[in-house]
Amino acid sequence: MSQAPLSGVTSAPRIALCPGQPLLSAEATNRLLLRHGLNRELARALVHEAVAAVIPLSAEEELPLIAAHVQALGIRSEADLAPWLEERHWSRDDLRAAATLAERLRRWSHWRFEHEVEIRFLDRKQDLDRVVYALLQVQERELAEELHQRLKAAEMTFADAVRQFSLGPERDTQGLVGPIALSAIAPELSGRLRAGREGQLWPPFLSQEHWCVLRLERQLPAQLDAEIRERLLHDLFSTWVNSQVEGLLQGSALAAVPRPEEADSP
Predict the structure, then answer these.
(1) Disulfide check for 185: which of 164, 190, 195, 207 has CB 3.0–4.6 Å away?
(2) Within 13 Å, how many C-alpha atoms sit on residue 238's CB side?
(3) For residue range 211-261, what is the model confidence (pLDDT) as tens digits?
(4) Predicted confidence band of residue 11 (pLDDT cuts 50, 70, 90)
(5) How far apart are CA 202 and CA 65, in angstroms?
(6) Rounded distance, CA 238 to CA 234, Å?
(7) Spatial contact of 210 and 135, defined as CB atoms under 8 Å apart
(8) How far is the C-alpha of 51 from the C-alpha of 158, rounded, in Å?
(9) Three-state secondary-structure class, residue 212
(10) pLDDT by residue (tens digit) across 169-186?
(11) What is the pLDDT of residue 203?
């Protein structure tokens, strides 16, 4: 069965890949987006643009962002910038929008979700907590039990046991792993480490194809510092964006993006 030509009918409104040179009908463009899985990225771009549009920046705020963006592109002079823009069919407004997009999104997400950060932190704290642990992995259960007893009796150090017998990548660090978030650790290990105490040594247990001996070295509870705050704000914003994208893909209209000044109005 033959497919309809992507160019579409000549009378339909047409989409220009190159400004001033219409090429594809809207119908053909939609089919291309769906076939190649680009509809989700287009929806995400629409949401980002809608958010950016409600965050004003002054010229003084925009100029350093544009300068940094241009420098990151490897453009060193105005003489280099003009042909770069022309090659991409960009206007100066396109450059300004691209250079300031991330900052506008950041400011909106701070305004919109700042009050939710502490709640999200408390909900996710157990996953954000980090640990340092020592791990020994061997093939035979009997060897794991023998090494566990020798470690428990302080007849050998964990580093020596790992160097002589361990089969995992922890051999390169004398058995030490971390600091690492509990959420990034295999469930067989993280469940024990989450409930353990510093210095606790667990009897051998099977994890995938290896018998493991595990010891908790250090607990590093998460603190709501600037880095964690930014990460949680990013997560909250991404969740909101994804919900808007899903709505667009299901045929819903994009809701008006709240403006900060509207919240400040009496």
Answers:
(1) 190
(2) 6
(3) 999 999 999 999 999 999 999 999 999 999 999 999 999 999 998 999 987
(4) low
(5) 52
(6) 6
(7) no
(8) 53
(9) strand
(10) 998 999 999 999 998 999
(11) 96
Q: What is the 3-state secondary structure (H, E, C) of 17-34?
A: EECCEEEEEHHHHHHHHH
Residue of 181, 70, 191 lying closest to 125 (CA atoms)? 181
CA distance 251 to 245: 10
What 3-state class would DSSP assign to 134? strand
Residue 6: phi and psi, rounded to 5, are: -70, -20
Quote the percentage of the chain above a pLDDT of 70.
94
Distance (Å, whole) CA 99 – CA 93 = 10
For residues 213 and 165, the answer to whether their CB atoms sit within 8 Å is no
CATH domain 130-220 topology = Chitinase A; domain 3 (3.10.50)
Global model pTM greater than 0.70: yes
Closest CA to 138 of 121, 150, 126: 150
Q: In whole angstroms, give the CA distance from residue 145 to residue 156.
A: 14
Q: What whole-number distance in Å separates Cα of residue 4 and Cα of residue 8?
A: 8
Q: 224 and 118 in contact (C-beta within 8 Å)?
A: yes
Task: Label residue 72 exposed, middle or buried (CB < 10 Å: 0-12, 13-18, 19+).
Answer: exposed
Please report, as a single letter, which amino acid is at residue 166.
Answer: S
